Amino acid sequence: MAPPDTRTRIVLAAMDLFFLKGFGSTSVADILSRSQVNSGSLYHFFPGKQDVLLAVLEFYRDGIREMLLDPAWQGVDDPIERIFALLGAYRTMLVESDCTYGCPIGSLALELHEPDPAVRALLEANFDAWTGAIEGCLAAGADRLPPDIDRRALAEFALTAMEGGVMQARTARDIARFDRTVDQLRHHFTMLRSGAGAPFTAA
Amino acid sequence: MAPPDTRTRIVLAAMDLFFLKGFGSTSVADILSRSQVNSGSLYHFFPGKQDVLLAVLEFYRDGIREMLLDPAWQGVDDPIERIFALLGAYRTMLVESDCTYGCPIGSLALELHEPDPAVRALLEANFDAWTGAIEGCLAAGADRLPPDIDRRALAEFALTAMEGGVMQARTARDIARFDRTVDQLRHHFTMLRSGAGAPFTAA
DNA sequence: CTCGGTTAGTTGAATGATCAATCAAGGCCG
DNA sequence: CGGCCTTGATTGATCATTCAACTAACCGAG
């Protein structure tokens, strides 16, 4: 295994730092010392700090399967259970960090109030990759769900539940807030499956 | 009406700025120029920038009724509809800001990765005031919900839906993401009311 | 009423830290 | 030689915070 090249080292270091401390609280000097690179080299590959963020968001979007989905879905074949296995992966991250580290994309999305269009587009692309994966699960498990279900809306709702649950667990430093959110989402699925209420239609 | 005193001017200006641009992106100089106050005066009332944030969070928590609930609930008496009227207020804020301005507390909660304990406690207190209000609605409308419902968990789930919907709408610059989340939550309530699925119990 | 003193609040230039970004010089490898 | 990459001190901007001097209001003593 060849050692990673300079550009990759920068991206990996910056990913760790941006995800852990956020964009604004990470200085270029932080990235330099963690990646063992000099400032001149960084600015040789990237016009500026923001372009490092773009590279990190591209890297994460392209690696979502290997970095997030595959580990979370190891040994889980049922497509609906995979949705909750993915939420379980976020639960693990919360617990292992004392409810400090949640969803890095969500944190960045709310930290950057007026993001550059390119940054915003990549944040959206990361969310879309996530909901796309969930939508795939819903499609694979369609036989156990009402046929008229809006898969896109339900996948987005799973993202909503994850992000909202992470936010509350982090703020309260209490994993129970995340667990209660997931329980509610599970109940949502249970009720959907039993075909309760009118068939869902967008307003 | 007496003009607001210096301390209040600072808190009001800082609230606007923290809610609009975040804590990190707001400089003390920003607060000074918006409040028309000199740095010496600010530091006469507050030991530092973070203490201004504490004052803002206290002010907002104490004023949630006047600033948020009362306007949102004008003309809405049904307790369950009040929940969705509150979500409607966030929708209005999103639309009026081109999906830029969402929930200020949520933004701050995710921006501050390692908040001072006092700051974290006040963020939590703001969330608790919010969910407490929703819980009150659920209690007032208890006759139209299954009796064994976990009101706390359901109120937290409403917060989850709001925060997750705001996050996605902001990131995608598309109000439809918020609307779909609210639709899902409404459907959640519909299904609950019809008593579908096993009675909910926490895991 | 008035003088002296005390306190609360104000002023804004100065300070030092931190930060992103620059660049001239040099090394490596074809 | 020449293009690609690296070095790291330097720059200038921005930032939170400090401080010494100033004003205004009040209060009690004479």
What does it look like?
Two copies of one chain form a homodimer. Chain A is mostly helical and 203 residues long. Chain A folds into two domains: 6-57, Arc Repressor Mutant, subunit A; 63-193, Tetracycline Repressor, domain 2. Chain A has ten helices and no strands. Chain A has helices at 6-21, 28-35, 39-45, 49-62, 64-73, 79-96, 104-111, 117-140, 151-172, 175-193. In chain A, helix 1 packs across helix 2 (28-35) and helix 7 packs antiparallel against helix 8 (117-140). The longest helix of chain A has 24 residues, at 117-140. The first copy, chain A, starts with 5 loop residues before the first helix and ends in a 10-residue tail after the last helix. The model of chain A is unreliable at 197-203 (pLDDT under 50). The structure holds a DNA duplex (30 and 30 nucleotides).
Which features does this protein show?
Tetracycline Repressor, domain 2, 203 residues, Arc Repressor Mutant, subunit A, 10 helices, homodimer, DNA-binding, 2 domains, mainly alpha, disordered C terminus
CATH architecture annotation of the largest domain in chain A: Orthogonal Bundle
CATH class of the largest domain in chain A: Mainly Alpha
Number of domains of chain A: 2
Share of helical residues of chain A? over 70%
Strand content of chain A: under 5%
- CATH-defined fold name of the largest domain in chain A: Tetracycline Repressor, domain 2
Mean of residue pLDDT values of chain A: 94
Which term fits the overall shape of chain A? elongated
Secondary structure category of chain A:
mainly alpha
Q: What name goes with the CATH superfamily of the largest domain in chain A?
A: Tetracycline Repressor, domain 2
Number of strands of chain A: 0
**Poorly predicted residue ranges of chain A:** 197-203
User: Could you tell me which chain pair has the largest interface and how many residues each side has?
Assistant: A-B, 57 and 57 residues
Total number of helices of chain A: 10
